[in-house]
């Protein structure tokens, strides 16, 4: 038990350290619903030669058809934006086309950038490959993997990035209907759909200050983290929020309620329920089931609020966080049923059965999974490093505190059992003992030939 707790604490700290070292990231997972599907991960680094900041961009685009194109760009509008437009046919044997474009003014056809557009900036595509993604033989799905570096990107004339800003606007757009006659960097592009959102275009906001790498050497290209919708990014211009408007509830009170329900259940109520069962109190069972019932109610309420926020798109919107949360909610119901059955059987036969161990292990798995999901929820919400670190530290302390309490309780129980056994043996020796050597001497000196008495007080020690 102690080893497993230590291993979990080490693993959690390791995951937390990796998480905090990751770049900012923004994704839209819409492929399964016929919508745009891309991820963009970014890191900025100050160039020692130019004193400007370079942008290292990794981008993935998931698609099943060679039709259309997908684009992201700096700024809040097309005019002056530095655009990265991806299109191509994965089955043509040619890598994805990455066309770097801009629009000098207005809302017009983007054209490839030239030296006058870039000024002191230097933009290079360093990777452009296709990789097989999920799909079937008849309907294959492909993922374009793109890596771009923009040297001195903070000096791009028309839409310079700020390495100090915490809410830098970006745009995205796509077209899923255009049939290309030729795949080239200057191919003419049909217009995106007019509707905002998943219709054809939209905005997102990135905490570029958070993306700055402080190392002296240039960083490696940022790795796109699978399943993370937003990390240091937001759909909203004020602050850093998630598609659920962050757990602070600035945009959606359900998000705040969801986080409150889950944190209360898994950080406080359930650990207290476990501790109550091992407290040694005469009312320990009553405290245990009462706390477990309250904790389960809180967790199920949290799951319901989460589903209300995402609807049927819980998997595509939250990736691993949502499905894991729903799984924990279901496991808790199964665990509660197993706990009730364990009690009924235990009262009758006074020993554990397989249902007892099922109840215990479902509880352990649910608690550990929920702790991991609390961290992933904050990451999904775009929470800052300090909040994620604080949550991770609290979970580690919670786990260690619970492990220490259980270890002390187990040790106390063993000590009490050993003491009871030793006391019983002492009683037997005490009550079944012959006269001492001095008694023999006293009897001899008396010359009365008195026989030694067997001092016996027979008792039956009680073992409970």
Report the count of strand segments: 16
Whole-number count of domains: 2
Low-confidence stretches: 14-21, 239-251, 423-464
The computed structural class is alpha+beta
User: In the CATH hierarchy, what is the superfamily of the largest domain?
Assistant: Cellobiose dehydrogenase, cytochrome domain
Estimate the helix proportion, in percent. Answer: 40-55%
Q: Order of SSEs, N→C?
A: HEEEEEEEHEEEEHEEEHHHHHHEHE
Please state the second-level CATH architecture of the largest domain: Sandwich
Largest sheet: 7 strands, mixed
Write a compact overview of the structure shown.
The protein is an alpha+beta fold. It has helices at residues 2-20, 115-118, 208-211, 253-277, 284-310, 314-318, 321-349, 354-380, 385-431, 437-446; strands spanning 24-29, 37-46, 53-63, 69-74, 83-87, 97-102, 111-112, 122-132, 142-151, 168-175, 201-206, 212-213, 230-231, 233-234, 432-433, 455-456.
């Amino acid at each position: 038990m102690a080893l497993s707790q230590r291993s979990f604490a080490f693993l959690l700290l390791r995951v937390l350290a990796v998480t905090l070292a990751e770049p900012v990231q923004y994704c839209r997972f819409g492929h399964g619903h016929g919508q745009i599907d891309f991820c963009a991960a970014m890191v900025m680094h100050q160039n020692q030669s130019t004193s400007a900041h370079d942008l290292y961009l990794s981008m993935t685009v998931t698609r099943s058809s060679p039709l259309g194109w997908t684009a992201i760009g700096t700024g809040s509008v097309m005019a002056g934006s530095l655009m990265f437009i991806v299109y191509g046919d994965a089955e043509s044997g040619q890598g994805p086309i990455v066309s770097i474009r801009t629009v000098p003014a207005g809302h017009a056809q983007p054209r490839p950038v030239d030296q006058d557009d870039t000024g002191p900036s230097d933009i290079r595509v360093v990777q452009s490959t296709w990789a097989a993604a999920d799909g079937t033989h008849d309907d294959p799905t492909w993922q374009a993997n793109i890596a771009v570096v923009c040297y001195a990107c903070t000096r791009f004339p028309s839409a310079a990035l700020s390495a100090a800003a915490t809410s830098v606007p970006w745009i995205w757009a796509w077209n899923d209907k255009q049939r290309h006659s030729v795949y080239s960097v200057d191919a003419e592009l049909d217009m995106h759909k007019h509707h905002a959102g998943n219709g054809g275009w939209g905005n997102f906001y990135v905490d570029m200050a958070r993306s700055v790498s402080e190392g002296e050497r240039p960083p490696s290209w940022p790795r796109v983290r699978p399943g993370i919708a937003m990390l240091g990014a937001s759909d909203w211009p004020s602050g850093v929020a998630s598609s659920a408007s962050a757990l602070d509830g600035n945009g959606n009170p359900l998000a705040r309620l969801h986080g409150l329900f889950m944190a209360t259940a898994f950080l406080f109520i359930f650990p207290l329920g476990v501790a109550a069962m091992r407290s040694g109190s005469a009312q320990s069972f009553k405290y245990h089931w009462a706390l477990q019932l309250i904790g389960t109610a809180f967790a199920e309420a949290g799951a319901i609020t989460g589903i209300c926020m995402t609807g049927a798109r819980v998997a595509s919107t939250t990736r691993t966080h949502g499905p894991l949360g729903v799984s924990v909610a279901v496991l808790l119901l199964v665990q509660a049923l197993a706990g009730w059955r364990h009690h009924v059987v235990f009262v009758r036969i006074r020993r554990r059965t397989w249902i007892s161990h099922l109840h215990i292990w479902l509880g352990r798995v649910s608690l550990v999974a929920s702790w991991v999901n609390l961290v992933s929820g904050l990451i999904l919400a775009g929470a800052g490093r300090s909040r994620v670190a604080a949550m991770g530290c609290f979970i580690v302390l919670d786990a260690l505190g619970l492990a220490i309490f259980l270890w002390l309780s187990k040790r106390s129980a063993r000590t009490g059992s050993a003491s009871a056994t030793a006391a019983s043996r002492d009683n037997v020796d005490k009550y079944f003992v012959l006269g001492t050597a001095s008694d023999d001497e006293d009897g001899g000196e008396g010359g009365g030939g008195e026989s030694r008495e067997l001092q016996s007080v027979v008792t039956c020690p009680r073992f409970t």
